[in-house]
């Protein structure tokens, strides 16, 4: 029985190394190239995952004292990655596949890990599972922050919806154009987020009077609920860049966004030269998860 367990651990460890190497060599696109996978995957993480799996095999055979520390660190990282996917509502099958193999390896190696480390590992996993179960119903039932200007797409096709991402420079150009046109109240702002940092940036930029932590927490959860819905909208339609406009059943992306907004929004400020608002040829463009054009 002991020999079979050791053999299974070796096979799983080698599989983890091969799995991570395959994704690292493929730039994170070999097993999954969807919008959510592009958000979550970084080649450097796959290289780290491959070397980490090799470290697990080495420690299990030659350095059992080191093994417990490696397992705890690995579980912390995996829990953080799973929570990020759940909170953003962007799931990476390739990432979850590595997580599943790692958890199975830890389960089989359980008796070789120090008791305190074993409790910490499974305690962290239990907390993560609890958050996973609670996030969706919590964000659905949380009342919207009264100060939040954000929205999600509904059945009204006459409304102009502008999707943007806080780290996208072209998105900020379009938002600035709307401010100059004084028509921002006629456009529904639909933020998406490619990281938890972006979610927090949305809260800081738009919940200015929520200074107390209970109010700030409500604003955070409310914003997270909107971001989750908008991320799902982008994922379902395969829109991989920002900004883009949804209007009358159309999706307008990239460099076409400024001109389209100028054409559908009547400028109430007479005498204002549209060239002062935006210069599409110079400033129009879009940002993807990894770069802006």
TrEMBL record:
Q: Where, by residue number, does the polypeptide cross the bilayer?
A: 44-59, 66-84, 90-108, 120-139
Q: Which InterPro entries match?
A: Thioredoxin-like_sf (IPR036249)
Record key words, sorted: Membrane, Transmembrane, Transmembrane helix
Keyword Membrane carried by entry: yes
Its domain of life reads Bacteria
Protein's UniProt name: Vitamin K epoxide reductase family protein
Q: Name the species this protein comes from.
A: Desulfosoma caldarium
